[in-house]
Specification:
Chain lengths: ~500, ~375
């Protein structure tokens, strides 16, 4: 059995998304497809899954061309896909989700619930997935939800399984569990395509690594032939410095001090539960943790976007606990928000308008009640140049820029001041290696200029690369403090809380 | 992302799109309206069975006559043009009111109520004080602005303080205003002495909006509307508060992040929107015969304004042209009724059809085979209101 994509070309108006791409996977083989955002991986997979029709080229199984016009065709051909964003109905049980779209029925349309549950149990047992068919999806941790997606694919008798960025939502421990599952699938003769931008993972589990860049397959390598540096170079097209170079930190005075902070989330649960820590000028403190352990609420509270229930936040000794976002911004706090599209940018606005988004009321950008768009534009032109934002002009809508360039717009806007404190949440999520490199170096530069820096990230690699001190957050509390020499395993354990073993949950 | 225009229409912002879709929507609406003229022509319908050729000729002739009358009545003479401008005046104010709301992410369905309150305030100034026109008219307009801003501001305050959706509160405030007007018209303060029905005293002649050309009805309100177009343009695109309006309108979370007091913006936007509605109300009392307050004097203008703001893409200049178009339909519709015997209601059908096509640009694109713009802007109502 062999699945093959042969000479796939996909032309969108103005963009050649795939240019004569070849990719094959045999049964019992794991192929990693590496590439930056925008390299054409998603387009290729959408073609494989019947969502796009290629401009030219064909998909073959055992040299027989397939007619793929819908996901239904792909499923019928034995191709399954586990998407990055799970497509599950939160209020349904595992079994109900698994059968959704392909419901086993008895006569006159009765749903055969028992058969569905049996099927889930059987598959779960065979691949040691350990999933309860009667659990409600919304009660399950992300790692288990992913397994439900895998069961869905297997229940439809897929022989080839595509995983789209499967580890981006998982904790280090969950990643290990996931790799075991993939190994089990491989042993059972499934052909696996593993899409990722994480180099280490590709090296760890793939039998073969295919690298895409700008719509083309630029290289096909065996993991034993290469290392991460080499892979990164192939992916980006130039040598990449994966290590963030920085001198040892020289911490000075305390800039941010947080004492017994308590913050409620939207469901009025204590998301931040009596947190205390300090950040000094000239050091980078990284907050690691699985998403949803109160990091979002912590950052919102520090930046004035969410009122806290208790505790004190001080900036250079001044109590800013109840200050507004603007008052905090005026005290030279730079905030790179977690979700650039939801809150960091106004997407239907131009680059210029976004550059002045939180300083539009200050001279020279405003003259009293009137905007001075000339001055605003001048600043945008200068910052676009200074921060290497790739844009045709400062007058285009920011929504037309790539994720990396959007993020650079935010970084430029926030850092273009005499910054006392940087609060950066997921500063490089979902952006290309080149932009990551650049933004990391800027953050280190801010530290070297004696700013205090607080980084919140669910990417452990990022925390390790940048932080002088690492705090691990678990269920609203600090579950551990490490210095920059800590190993991922130590931190990974702390990320699962004091109990130490929530068994891959 | 409650940028209402984008949400309702899913259209991006390039100029070509800005013009193409409304133009094609209007064309489509006129074609369908022609079809309606044909099938409602009871004199010709029976002839189709006996003499289809003659029936076809009569039908085409009828449609031709109707549209010719529509054009003649709106642009065919000086009188027709002034009537178009006259009819467009309140529509432009009201359309601007809705457009300002749209741009700031608020759906002001309450222009009707704001017109009533603003109009009554202007009326009261109109008959209760004596002053030369140069003072009297500005005072009356200021009163209208205050009344409309108050009525709109209430909805803004409710949204800011309690989260009550402005769509609901403004509709309710419309009813309150409507019946408040009926009540006020029967109080001794407003009612015309010697009358029993709800009709007010006549405004002083110094408060009447002077006409612009001879005895044609178009009056100074049209010039004020032009000034309002400029003022709204400045407000939205040149002032800092307009920047806040648009930021909050396009992305409330982004606005909050940028340090904008979103709740305060909601109140301000609704007050500005209501103020424009208030001027429209003043125009309906001080700008035309009989210069008195009567029951429901705002009519359907406050609702037509929603259509107008959509057609004008919530841009003040777009609203101006949409207002002129709707004004022309009104003025021409009367001629069409008189000369071609087509009920003026057909104009409402055309208006409604324009909106259907504007609100469903994918329909227009499908009919005219226009390519979908290469951008993700397809956010439509299906994504839900609450987000």
């Amino acid at each position: 059995m062999k699945l093959e994509l042969k000479g796939i070309t996909k032309q969108f108006p103005g963009v050649l998304a795939n240019d004569n791409v070849n990719l094959s996977v045999a049964e019992g083989e794991i192929v990693a497809l590496l590439g930056e955002n925008g390299a054409g991986k998603s387009t290729l997979m959408n073609i494989l899954y019947g969502l796009y029709t290629p401009t030219s080229g064909e998909v073959l199984i055992d040299d027989k061309p397939l007619e793929l016009h819908s996901p239904g065709d792909a499923i019928a051909a034995g191709i399954g896909m586990v998407h990055q964003h799970f497509m599950l109905v939160p209020v349904f049980t595992v079994a109900e989700n698994v059968i959704l779209g392909d419901e086993p029925t008895k006569r006159i349309g009765w749903l055969d619930a028992r058969r569905a549950r049996k099927m889930v149990k059987e598959i779960s047992g065979r691949y040691s997935l350990d999933v309860d068919p009667d659990a409600i999806i919304e009660d399950l941790p992300v790692g288990i939800e992913q397994r439900v997606e895998i069961i869905k694919v297997l229940a439809r008798e897929a022989r080839f399984v595509v995983f789209d960025e499967p580890t981006s939502v998982l904790t280090p421990t969950e990643v290990e569990g996931f790799f075991e599952i993939v190994a089990g699938l491989k042993a059972d003769g499934k052909g696996i395509i593993f899409i990722s931008h994480k180099l280490g993972e590709a090296l760890e589990i793939a039998d073969r690594i295919v690298i895409m860049r700008r719509g083309k397959t630029v290289a096909e390598v065996l993991p034993e032939e290469v290392d991460e540096e080499k892979l990164a170079e192939l992916m980006v097209g130039r040598p990449v410095d994966l290590v963030v170079h920085r001198e040892k930190a020289k911490p000075a005075d305390v800039v941010l001090s947080v004492e017994n902070l308590v913050v409620l989330d939207d469901r009025t649960q204590r998301a931040v539960d009596g947190l205390s820590f300090e950040v000094r000028a000239g050091e980078i403190v990284g907050i690691a943790g699985v998403q949803g352990n109160g990091q979002t609420e912590l950052v919102e509270s520090l930046t004035g976007l969410r009122t806290s229930l208790g505790g004190v936040v001080r900036l250079n000794g001044e109590d800013i606990t109840t200050k507004s976002p603007r008052a905090i911004h005026k005290r030279n706090v730079a905030h790179v928000p977690e979700d650039r599209q939801r809150s960091g940018l106004v997407l239907p606005f131009t680059v210029t308008e976004n550059i002045v988004l939180d300083s539009y009321y200050e001279a020279p950008v405003s003259r009293g009640v009137q905007m001075n768009w000339g001055a605003a534009r001048d600043r945008a032109v200068r910052l676009v140049e200074e921060y290497d934002v790739r844009t045709p002009s400062v007058d285009v809508l920011v929504s037309t820029l790539s994720g990396g360039n959007q993020q650079k717009v935010i970084v430029a806007r926030e850092f273009d001041r005499d910054v006392a404190l940087v609060i950066a949440s997921q500063p490089t999520r979902g952006i290309d290696v080149g932009s990551i490199e650049y933004i990391h170096s800027r953050i280190v530069q801010e530290r070297d200029n004696q700013s205090a820096v607080l980084i919140v990230s669910s990417e452990l690699d990022e925390i390790l690369a940048l932080s002088d001190r690492i705090l691990v957050m678990f269920e609203g509390k600090i579950a551990g403090e490490f210095d920059s020499s800590a190993t991922p395993t130590e931190i990974g354990l702390a990320m699962l809380g004091s109990q130490g073993g929530l068994e891959a949950s | 992302m409650p940028n209402w225009y984008a949400r309702i229409t899913g259209v991006g912002s390039s100029l070509r799109q800005a013009l193409v879709i409304p133009a094609l929507a209007l064309l489509s609406a006129l074609v369908i309206a022609a079809f309606i003229i044909a099938v409602t022509d009871v004199d010709t319908l029976p002839i189709w069975g006996t003499d289809p050729g003659e029936a076809f000729r009569l039908t085409i002739g009828g449609i031709g006559d109707a549209y010719k009358a529509l054009f003649v009545g709106s642009f065919g003479s000086v009188r027709a043009i002034t009537e178009t401008l006259f009819a467009a005046t309140p529509l432009i104010f009201a359309g601007l009111a809705v457009a300002v709301g749209f741009q700031a992410g608020l759906f002001n369905i309450g222009v009707n109520g704001q017109m009533h309150i603003g109009g009554m305030a202007a009326l009261w100034v109109g008959f209760s004080i004596a002053a030369p026109a140069i003072i009297h008219i500005p005072l009356a307009i200021l009163a209208a602005i205050a009344g409309g801003a108050l009525w709109g501001g209430i909805a803004g305050l409710l949204r800011a303080r309690t989260g009550a959706h402005e769509v609901i509160t403004t509709i309710m405030l419309n009813f309150i205003a409507l019946f408040l007007v009926d009540y006020l018209l029967k109080t001794t303060v407003f009612q015309q002495p010697g009358r029993n029905d709800p009709i007010s005293q006549k405004a002083a002649s110094t408060a009447e909006f002077p006409t612009l050309i001879g005895d044609y009805r178009v009056q100074i309100g049209f010039l004020i509307a032009l000034a309002a177009v400029g003022a709204v343009w400045w407000l939205m695109y040149r002032s800092t508060i307009g920047f806040e309006f648009r930021a909050v309108g396009s992305n409330p979370d982004g606005g909050k992040y940028a340090g904008i007091n979103v709740a305060w913006i909601y109140v301000t936007v609704m007050a500005v929107s209501g103020a424009l509605g208030g001027i429209a109300g003043a125009n309906q009392i001080l700008g035309l015969e009989p210069y008195r307050g009567i029951s429901n004097f705002a009519g359907t203008i406050g609702f037509d304004a929603i259509a107008l703001a959509l057609l004008g893409r919530s841009h003040p200049v777009g609203v101006l042209f949409a207002g002129l178009l709707f004004g022309a339909l009104r003025a021409g519709g009367r001629e069409m009724q008189g000369a071609a015997g087509i009920p003026i209601d057909l104009v409402l059908v055309v208006q409604a059809l324009v909106i259907v096509f504007i609100a469903a640009p994918s329909l227009v694109r499908a009919i005219y085979r226009i390519k979908t713009p290469e951008q993700e802007g397809g956010t439509t109502f299906s994504k839900g209101w609450g987000a």
